[in-house]
Structure formats: structure tokens, C-alpha cells
Amino acid sequence: MKQLSLSIKLTLSMLMVSLLPLAITSFTLLSNASSSLKQQAFNQLESVREIKKGQIESYFSVIDKQLITLAENPTTIKAMSDFSERFDALAGDINVESKQFKQYKESQTSYYTDAFSQEFEQKNNIRPNVKGLIPNSPAQIIAQYLYISNNSNALGNKHKLFDAKDGSSYSQAHAQYHPIFKNILERFGFDDIFLVDATTGNIVYSVYKEIDYATSLETGAYNNSAIGQAYRKAKASSNAGSSFLIDFDNYGPSYDAPASFISTPIFKTNSKELLGVLIFQMPIDNINAIMQEKAGFGESGETYLLGDDLLMRSQSRFSEENTIFSTKVDTEAASQVFAGKKDSVLANDYRGIPVLSSYTPVLITGLKWALLAEIDEAEILSSTDTLTQLVALALLLLFWQSLALFGLLCVVQINSWEQIQQSCKYLLKKLQQAIYLLMRMKNRLNTVFMQPCIPCVKNLSK
Q1: Which fold is adopted by the domain 40-60+298-377?
Q2: Average pLDDT estimate for 429-449
Q3: Is the torsion defined by CA of 309, 314, 319, 323 positive or negative?
């Protein structure tokens, strides 16, 4: 077989020299574009992260101020004093006969075993053991009978009863103060508002009248729960204007829904005498509304809160199932943020998906939380993938045009068909060498550009 002439080899070499730098330049620019897009995405994530952090910290700060302002209000101080005094006197005030008291007790027990248990089972697929939950002091039984079990309003609407019409001084106080606290709850979106007597720990008033109402946070079923912790911390404080926030936890009276509590002491006017404790039950929905707002955040972007136990404190927008206290985020970003760091990384998220993640601690007194803002890497790089495919197509077309031009030159310069075939094989051999050189220089070329090219080149060289 004859060797190729020097002029043909020079022509082939010029073609390769012209195509190779073009390919290297194109994919270098694409690589730079990919890095630039990631950096731009990180900058946007950090901005969103700081905005959400500010919103969450501001939300808790506002609630803190609302709590303290309400506790220092003369109406609240008077209500605390009246409810405590009249709750203790409830049994003697009504003077219930033993037979009637037994009916009260049966009605109360029936509410626990039927209405409450059925609702709890429907929400959690498990029936609760209510035996240790039912309070047994006369005042507690009568209060729960009047405002819960004998309350004609449906479950979840017990707060609509203003006056039990039993003639007691307690119900007179309830009719006076309940509209005020109910209005505050509905205006600011709290889950519940409690007044707790400082001496007995009795919850002498609540807006919603769940089964924690009229129980003791000193000796009752919920003394070790989150609301019990909130009560004890506020009771131990001697400073007006102090507040204590307890992290979210599943709360039985609210059918094991996540609940957080914030408390402050109530002192007698111009005195250090402690009357009781004011407690707000914090709503999770308001926090979710802040975290799940995704305007300008892409299809895969999300922000969420995390506790130091690595369990979510807000709902993931990618799940229809509850993720609060059920989804663990054991990721690189989570471990870094609870080491006190504030940064952005490219890593897998709690779903095992590669994401750009930006994280920061959240500064809320009483809580060890972090905030993470994340978006899928694939979404960020989707525009460069499309551009890469277009560049690859353009280079392929340019190659085939060059090959056609080379073929035309061969026809002009060569009379032997065997020599034309040999020239084509020489060109393809050089192209293969260039491709493998590029593959070693840029791994990304192997997946985006070179994979469709290599089979074509191998087939043509046969």
C-alpha cells in the first residue's frame, strides 16, 4: 500500500490543528460557565438564607415582645388573680352533691375515652392510654366538665363557649376575660394561651380548652412535658420581662402535633409577688409559611429548619408526609452548621441528591437551630448542559464539513480510490488521538461530547 503524499498529510494536519484548539476553547468556556453559574447560585442561596434567618428570628422576637407586653397588662394581672382565686373555690361555689359530682366524673371520663381518643387515633393510627391523664381533684373535674365534656361545641371548637351558666364566680370571670384572650389568640395566630397558678401549677384558664386545661403542671400528667418546662422556668424567675422558649416537641393534648411553648412570669402590680405564669403555645404553621415560600427559588430550591438532634423543625415542601421530628438530616452541611460554622458547600442532601447547600445557625434564645437553603445541582447546570450539547453538535458539523472538504481535495489530488480510503483512515486516526487527549484533559467531555463521537469514529475507521 502506498504512503500518503506530503501534501495530503499537511492538509490533514492543518485540519486537525484548526479543529483541536476550537474544541478545547469551547469546552474550557463551558467549564468556566458552569463554575460561574454555581457561584451565582451560591450567592443567591446565601441571600435567601439570610433573608429567611432574619424573618424567623424576627418572628420569635415579635412573639416574645407580645408575651411580655400582655403579661404586664393590668387586665392580664387582674385575670390571673381572679382565675386563681375562683378556680380554687369552684367546688365549694357550686356545692355539687355527690351523685351529681359522680355524673360529672363519668362525663369527663367518657370524653377522654371516646371523643379525645377517637380523634387521637384518627390522627396517629394508635389509640392513646388515657388512664393516667384524667385529673381527679374536685375543682379540676368540675372545670373540665363545665368547659370540655359538657360543652356542646364540637371538638376543636370548645373555645366558643364564653359562659357555662353554672352561676359560679369562676364562670363569671370566664365570661369577662375569655373574649379578650380569644381575640388576642385569633388576631396573632397562637395555638393556645394559658394562665397557670404559681402555687398549685393548675392551668386555671386556656382559650382552646384541650385536655391540658384544669390540670396541674406541678403534679399532673403534663408536668414533665414542654409546657411543664416552660412553667417551671418562668416560675423560677424573679425578673419581670424575662421569657423562656421551649423547643418544639410532640404534645399529647394537641393529638401529638408538634408544639412549642414560650412563658413569662406574671407579678402583682408594683410588687415582686408572683401570681402565675403566662404561656403561649406556638403555631408551627406560621414557621412553615415562612420557610416554604419559594418565590424566585427554582423548582428544586427549599429552605428548612433543623434542631441540634438533626431532626427537621419545619415541613419539607417535597413531602406530603409530616417531616417535623420524623426526617433526620445527617448531612455534611448539618454537621458543619452545628459545629458553629456558616458556609456553603456542594454535597448530598437528606434525600441523597447532589445540591448546593448554604447553612447558618439561627440565633433564638433557648433554641439550638440551624437554617439550610438548598437547590439541586442538576437544575443549576441544566442551562450549561443544553449549551454543551449545542456546541458539541456545532463541532460535529464542522468536522463533517471539513471531512467533506478533505474528500473533495482528495478527488482533485488523488486518482487512486485506495489512497482516498487510506487518507480517510489517517484523518480518523488523528481525530481519535485528539479525542482521547481531550478526554484526559476534561472528564466532562467524556459524558457530554465524546461519548456520542467515539462510536462514530470507530465505525468509520473500519
Answers
A1: Beta-Lactamase (3.30.450)
A2: 52
A3: positive
